[in-house]
Amino acid sequence: MLSSVMPLHEVNPIATCFSQAACSYDSAAHLQREVGQQLLQLCPSALAVQHWLDLGCGTGYFSQQLAQRYPQAQGCGVDIAQGMLQHAQRLRPYASYLCADAQALPLVSNSVDLIFSSMALQWCDDFAAVLAEAKRVLKPNGIIAFTSVAEGTLYELKHSWQAVDNQPHINQFRRFADYQRLCEASGLKVVHLRCQTLQQHFSSVRELSQNLKQLGAHHVQTGRNNGLTSRQQYMKLSQAYEQQRQPQGLPVTWQMVYAVLQAV
Ligand SMILES: C[S@@+](CC[C@H](N)C(=O)[O-])C[C@H]1O[C@@H](n2cnc3c(N)ncnc32)[C@H](O)[C@@H]1O
C-alpha cells in the first residue's frame, strides 16, 4: 500500500506544536475521544477492509481501535507531526506509521478501503486537496469517514479576545456550508454529513488555554505572532470571558462536522 516513507523535517509550525504536545495529548483529549468514538460508529460495519488509514492519527488512539475492529487488515496511521508518530509507535504499535500531509499523500492510488480521520482536517488549508487525495487513494466503494471543526468553534474565546485587542487569536475555521459544498463537489458520494454543536466547560481561562496547549491545538494560522499573553492581557481576557460564565463553568463551544463519503 505504501509507495514511500518520507520523513518530514518540521518546518511546519502546526506539526511543531503537535509534536511538542505528544506526551500531554492523551490526558487532555476528552472531547476528542468522544468525537472519535462517534465517528467509529459511523463507519459501516459491513465494509470489507483490507487496508485502512487513520489520517491525522496523533498518538494513535484510534489506530489501535481500528486495528482491533479490523484484525485481518493492514493499518497505517498518518500524521504530519513526527513527535506524535514517535509517541504512537512506542505506545500503540498496532499499525505502521507514516509522516505525511493529508493534502499530498505519498500513497499509491486505489489502495485503501477505509480512511478514518478525527479532528485533524481542520488544520488543512486546502480541503479540496484532502478530498481529491482521498478519492485517489480509495478503492471503488471505499469510505472516508471524518470529523472536523467548523466556524463557530471557540467563539466564546474569540469574542473575549476582542475585548483585549484586534489580533486574530483563534483560527478561522471553515464554514459548515463550505464543507458541504466541497464534499458535494469532490466526486465522492455523500453518505452522511451533519454539524453538531458540542459544549465543554472549564473552571478558568487558564485551564482552557492549558488544555489547548496540552492538545497542541494552540497554533494560530493567520499571521499573528503566537507569543506569550501578558498578565494584563490575561486579566482583560478573563474578565470578558467571565461575562459568559454558566453554572457548570466557562463554556467552550465546538461546531463538529461528521461525514461519511464513498468512492463510486
Ligand atoms: C487534534 S489531533 C487528533 C488526533 C487523533 N485523530 C485523535 O482524534 O485523537 C490532530 C492531528 O492532526 C495532525 N495534522 C494536522 N495537520 C495535518 C496534515 N495536514 N496532515 C496530516 N496530519 C495533520 C496533527 O499533527 C495532530 O496530530
TrEMBL record:
It holds the Pfam family Methyltransf_11. One of its GO terms (biological process) is methylation. Residues 53-146 form the Methyltransferase type domain. It catalyses: malonyl-[ACP] + S-adenosyl-L-methionine = malonyl-[ACP] methyl ester + S-adenosyl-L-homocysteine. Its EC number is 2.1.1.197. The keyword Methyltransferase applies. HAMAP family: BioC. One of its GO terms (molecular function) is malonyl-CoA methyltransferase activity. Belongs to the methyltransferase superfamily. This is Malonyl-[acyl-carrier protein] O-methyltransferase. Transmembrane segments: none annotated. InterPro entries: BioC, Malonyl-ACP_OMT, Methyltransf_11, SAM-dependent_MTases_sf. Keywords: Biotin biosynthesis, Methyltransferase, S-adenosyl-L-methionine, Transferase. Converts the free carboxyl group of a malonyl-thioester to its methyl ester by transfer of a methyl group from S-adenosyl-L-methionine (SAM). It allows to synthesize pimeloyl-ACP via the fatty acid synthetic pathway. Pathway: Cofactor biosynthesis; biotin biosynthesis.
